[in-house]
Amino acid sequence: MILCALAVLTGCGRFSTVFRRDLTDKQLEAFFRMHTVSGNHAVAAKKLITVPESGVSYLATFHGYADNLKVCKEVIAPLNNDPSLSVISGTYFCEALR
Q1: Cα dihedral: 27, 33, 34, 38 (round 10)
Q2: How is the chain split into domains, by residue range?
Q3: What is the pLDDT of residues 26-64, one digit of tens each?
Q4: Which residues contact 40 (CB under 8 A, 6 or more apart)?
Q5: What is the C-alpha to C-alpha distance for residues 41 and 66, in angstroms, rounded to an integer?
Q6: Residues 29 and 97: beta-carbon distance below 8 Å
Q7: Tell me: the pLDDT tens digits for 11-29?
Q8: Does pTM surpass 0.85?
């Protein structure tokens, strides 16, 4: 019976991401946008890279804190204040995954 239930759940698009070993950034964000952790939305720490190629890099996800956004901002503040702490130039920012 358990195997049947798992087969049904893994076949559903909504649950199939949960059972995968490898996720893309977009799949991880989609998961956190659809779920909360202890009633709070997760927050992603990202970096807007300017050199050598422009783009956004997904660095971390904050969840489990009473104020995930505040914790994320506290973590990235030193990185934005002192560019020598980062090898790749760019700006760190936090994004609530709602």
Answers
A1: 120
A2: 22-96
A3: 898 999 999 999 899 999 999 999 877 789 999 999 999
A4: 63, 64, 65, 66, 67, 68
A5: 10
A6: yes
A7: 455 545 556 688 888 898 9
A8: no
